[in-house]
């Protein structure tokens, strides 16, 4: 039996992306309305009835609205104006970004050291086996773990 081949066509200007192995999203199958048809009916003052599936079969879907960068910029400025403490927000965002960059570079360095990734993997497996043996194998130990976990949640104020 021959397997179907998958064809992927990347999206370029004026075309839509499609994959022959997956049905196109938004195609009319049965009584499911496409978002363009529902929007077109709403703009005309009509409503969509799911029981009537064939009445607008020949109606062409309107073109998708173009990307409006100015509107996006205005919305971003309005959202930024709503933030009352913008200085600490910027500092926290910059700190989070710096932590991510440093973490990625540190992981890259550790990954390039010979044998260190495998040693850390073995240590992780060993600790996992130790944890399972200590807390998960027997019922009384699971209850102790649940009690410790609940105490930690209470201390931190997590419900």
Largest sheet: 2 strands, antiparallel
Order of helices and strands: EEHHHHH
Q: Which stretches of 5+ consecutive residues score pLDDT under 50?
A: 15-20, 27-33, 50-54
Portion of residues in beta strands equals under 5%
Which overall shape is indicated by the principal axes computed on the Cα atoms? extended
* Distinct helical segment count: 5
Structural class: mainly alpha
Main β-sheet, spatial strand arrangement: 1-2
Number of strands: 2
Q: Please give the share of residues in helix.
A: 55-70%
How many angstroms does the end-to-end distance come to? 55 Å
Please compute the radius of gyration using only Cα atoms: 28 Å
User: Kindly state the mean pLDDT as a whole number?
Assistant: 74
Describe the structure.
It is a single chain. The protein is mainly alpha-helical. A two-stranded antiparallel sheet has the order 1-2. A hairpin with an 8-residue loop joins β1 and β2. The longest helix has 27 residues.
Annotate the secondary structure layout.
Elements: E1 8-9, E2 18-19, H1 35-43, H2 69-82, H3 86-112, H4 116-136, H5 139-156
Antiparallel strand pairs: 1-2
Provide a brief overview of the structure.
With 159 residues, this protein is mostly helical.
Characteristic terms for this protein:
159 residues; 56% helix; extended
